[in-house]
Amino acid sequence: MSEENKRRSKRSKGSKKKSKKKSKILLFLKITFLLFIIIGFIGVGIAAGLVSAALKDVKPIDPSRIPLMLDENSFIYDNKGNVLEKIQRDGLRTIVKYEEVDDDLKNAFISTEDRTFFEHHGFNYKRLVGAVIQGIKSGGRIKGTSTITQQLARNIYLSEIKSERSLTRKIKEAYYAIQLEKSLQKEQIFEAYLNTIYLGSGAYGVQAAAQTYFSKDAKDLDLVESALIAGITQSPRRHSPFITKKKEDVDEDDYVLDDSDEIYTIVFNESCLDRYKDVLFFMRTTNSITEKQYEEAKNVDLKTKLKPGKLKNTNISSFFTDLVKDEVIDALTIELDIAKEEARNMLYTQGLKIYSTLDLDMQTNLENIYADNKNFPQLQSIRKDKQGNILKAVKSNGKTIGYSIVLYKQENIISKDGDLIIPKGDFKYADNGDLIFLKNKRLDFISLKEKGKLVGIKVKVMDSYKFDDKKDMYMYKGNTVKIPPQYKSYDKNNNLIVASEFLKSNPNFFKKDSNGNILISKNNYSISSKGIIQPQSSTVIIDYRTGEIKALIGGRNIKGQKQFNRALSPRQPGSAIKPLSVFTPAIDSKEWTEASIIDDIPHYDANGRRWPRNWYGKSDPKHKGYWGLTTLREALQHSMNVPAVILAERLGISTCIEYLKKMGISSIVESGASTDTNSAAMGLGGMTKGISPLELTSAYGSLANAGIHIKPFSFTKVTDRDGNIILENKPQKNYVVSPQVAYIMTDMLRSGVEEGGTGGRARLKNMHVAGKTGTTSDNYDAWFVGYTPYYVAGVWIGNDLQIDLPNGSRLSAELWKKIMTKMHEGLEEKNFEKPEGIIRVAIDKESGKLPTELSSKDPRGSTVRNYYFIAGTQPTEYDDVHVEAVICAESGKLATEYCPGDVIGNQVFIKRPIPYNPEEHGGYIPTDYQYEVPKEYCDIHTSNFNTNTPIENLPIGTIVLPNGTRIYPDGTKLLIDGTIVYPDGTVKSPLDNTNINKNPETNNPNSNDDVVDSDDDSLIDSND
Ligand SMILES: [Zn+2]
């Protein structure tokens, strides 16, 4: 004992002297009473009155129900039967049968706790009396008087008053012990005992203890392990073989057994040694072990035997098992018609076995990819102010009107000493000395209201960020500033008034630095101690044929249970909604096919505003913002916005919503101030709430699964402790579209990945992929959702706050590829299954019709493609967009009869079914406009009589006079200035030429709405 400890123990001894005397008297009284009871039981009857008073409210017991009364923790298994988690609330327990327990363990308990257990009738009177006398002699408490039966009675019937030392409790305990002995065999009592005793570290019963200390089943315990466990009973806290310590409390002398947890370390508990040796001694005394066993066991190094068990598989995060628990509770509530709290209780206490859908290998692979920060983007190039605080654009009517701070740089708000800095200018003083914190500065004021009335104000520190040395950004949540409620109020401008009385009575609440800034001391405010890395991400992988969730992760670098699960939280889907909301219903209508044509030209919203913009128009919207005639297949492949909006409008918003719902999407807002009943939401994914990664992934699964949506689920069945099935998850199927429609969609989505579309970065080496990117306005969300012939997976990346991401959807497609490459290792390469009734037809992609000879002569190269069709929907008409025209090479326009034969030739052009005039659309020119057949005729060769015609080309018989005038064989004169004098005397001046038209290429209206365009807040405008 150290000097310090000696002094301390002396001091406490001194102060306890008086009370010790008192307790001695009390003890003596108690013992006397107890003796009376005992005497009463053996027939003298003196205490009969007391006994009957104590027993007047005991309930009759049914010992056969003992196993059912015991809380038993439930298990979650993966799809191969590996334990993912032992669900526990207060402790762990798994029931074992008497026969399953080895003799060493039985003997260890019997020798130590109750040697005459198999002989007595609930009591060991001899031992009791002996203990009492010993207790009186030594002045200590009565020890070791309880038989195993009594201990059992106490554990199961008197758990609430277990620690009470009342006479009534002793009488009740005796009564129950007698009842147990009367109705149960000794073996049954012993079995119940082994399953109920508390053995430290949250373990109830020998099975839980065996798992906790040795990671094995009770039946496999050897002598050393059995003795160690039996030794715990006397004082679980003191004799437990190991202790769990907070990391900062671990001493140098501590022998560390397990350091895998982030917060706790398991260390060996030296003080279990003495008791362990006692148990061995008792076992030897009762001849349960030989002398040789005894000597050997005494010398075993216990540290080497211990192997702390894990409550859960620590290699995986808790997002999935949390989801399983929630789903089981919900299912129990419905299936058994019980309250949620009761269902929760069942989960914690009823020994349920939950068979989950998780594939541990897939999940582990996913966790490993998520653990590597290199797989995620970094946020260094985001918009910041001069001080390094992160900004977000403030918009009004789609225009950026300014920026506001969305996240403070932590060193700007917290000083080196840990004080919160409120800079001069963010506060002021009132005349009466009150301190006023200005709104929208470093502090956030949250009004707490009840029934619309202000009942309090919460003052919060703004969120902040820090970069670590690897340049990863972490966000820290700001918490409360401690100012008691009575001192807080608002002024008329909603600034916060802190009453001067508070400041006077708490002079240490803040100090001021030399610059006049307020420094609130660190004891008076808090921010989260652990930062959350940004950007965040989530991924869901589902076997779309069964609906089983195979792997799921709801955040990166996040430990602990019940964490915010981003896989279940709706986010804006952006373009990832398009295949589901517009393309699938379009194909399903049979009025549209892969080859249907939409003209990608300026489109206008209800207010006449040019909307939406396409992602490819950014650099030069006048010439690159629209692509012109487009098939649906191309429109999806390249994630074109105008065609998606046009489809949404033509189909009708209610049709879009209907299909989304069929695919299991539950977060569509249809009423209220802000709804999803518009083409911005349905065509471009700018939704009110958004869609969760789980639901969006599962919705894509319906296209992968031949048009049948299966509701995703996390467990297949749940059994009770006896193995009876109480819940079973049968796939809930919902017909969405025919296999043929689904196949067409798959083909279109495949083109986006495998044929140079926006999802090219998700392409896998040895597996076909159909999928879609999604990026939302301002790059807050980046998605890739796609499927292979095996799985559907959705990846989302975004920040927890609205901070834009660099590089848009590229990030998600790349991460998707990394994940799915791993998931498909060793799987046989195959193609998507093609249903009957699908035909492949060569079409022309400008007209969407059957190709003609002209289709292959398109100036950009042949526009003939092979597209898939549902049989019967293929085109029957021929390409009428490609036209052939005779062009004068000199003017590049339609040839006239006057154009010389050697400069004219046939060329192929396109001719829009609905003519487009750039002048009517602010001068925007779709990229295919240059291939339109010219509308003008040659303005160089406007008649036979042309001064440009070389002399050698003039008709035979023409006379050229010295002044240059030409006299043609018919008598017509052409003067050098171009004036024509016909034989009948009429004169045509060269200025009289009416054949000249404006050339659109050189006469762009000089529109000045470019300024508006650069800030055009089309909802979704970037998709790469
Ligand atoms: Zn010409």
TrEMBL record:
GO terms for molecular function: penicillin binding; peptidoglycan glycosyltransferase activity; serine-type D-Ala-D-Ala carboxypeptidase activity. Residues 993-1009 have a biased composition (Low complexity). Its main location: membrane. Residues 81-258 form the Glycosyl transferase family domain. One of its GO terms (cellular component) is plasma membrane. It comes from the Bacteria. The keyword Chloroplast does not apply. The keyword Cytoplasm does not apply. Its EC number is 2.4.99.28, 3.4.16.4. Keywords: Antibiotic resistance, Carboxypeptidase, Cell shape, Cell wall biogenesis/degradation, Glycosyltransferase, Hydrolase, Membrane, Multifunctional enzyme, Peptidoglycan synthesis, Protease, Signal-anchor, Transferase, Transmembrane, Transmembrane helix. It holds the Pfam family Transgly. It is a single-pass type II membrane protein. Residues 1010-1024 have a biased composition (Acidic residues). Residues 538-820 form the Penicillin-binding protein transpeptidase domain. The chain crosses the membrane at residues 25-55. Gene3D superfamilies: Biosynthetic peptidoglycan transglycosylase-like, DD-peptidase/beta-lactamase superfamily. Pathway: Cell wall biogenesis; peptidoglycan biosynthesis; Glycan biosynthesis. GO terms for biological process: cell wall organization; peptidoglycan biosynthetic process; proteolysis; regulation of cell shape; response to antibiotic. Residues 988-1024 are annotated as: Disordered. InterPro entries: Beta-lactam/transpept-like (IPR012338), Glyco_trans_51 (IPR001264), Glycosyltr_51/Transpeptidase (IPR050396), Lysozyme-like_dom_sf (IPR023346), PBP_transglycosylase (IPR036950), PCN-bd_Tpept (IPR001460). It catalyses: [GlcNAc-(1->4)-Mur2Ac(oyl-L-Ala-gamma-D-Glu-L-Lys-D-Ala-D-Ala)](n)-di-trans,octa-cis-undecaprenyl diphosphate + beta-D-GlcNAc-(1->4)-Mur2Ac(oyl-L-Ala-gamma-D-Glu-L-Lys-D-Ala-D-Ala)-di-trans,octa-cis-undecaprenyl diphosphate = [GlcNAc-(1->4)-Mur2Ac(oyl-L-Ala-gamma-D-Glu-L-Lys-D-Ala-D-Ala)](n+1)-di-trans,octa-cis-undecaprenyl diphosphate + di-trans,octa-cis-undecaprenyl diphosphate + H(+); Preferential cleavage: (Ac)2-L-Lys-D-Ala-|-D-Ala. Also transpeptidation of peptidyl-alanyl moieties that are N-acyl substituents of D-alanine. It is found in: Cell membrane. Cell wall formation. Synthesis of cross-linked peptidoglycan from the lipid intermediates. The enzyme has a penicillin-insensitive transglycosylase N-terminal domain (formation of linear glycan strands) and a penicillin-sensitive transpeptidase C-terminal domain (cross-linking of the peptide subunits). In the N-terminal section; belongs to the glycosyltransferase 51 family. This is Penicillin-binding protein 1A. It comes from Paramaledivibacter caminithermalis (strain DSM 15212 / CIP 107654 / DViRD3) (Clostridium caminithermale).
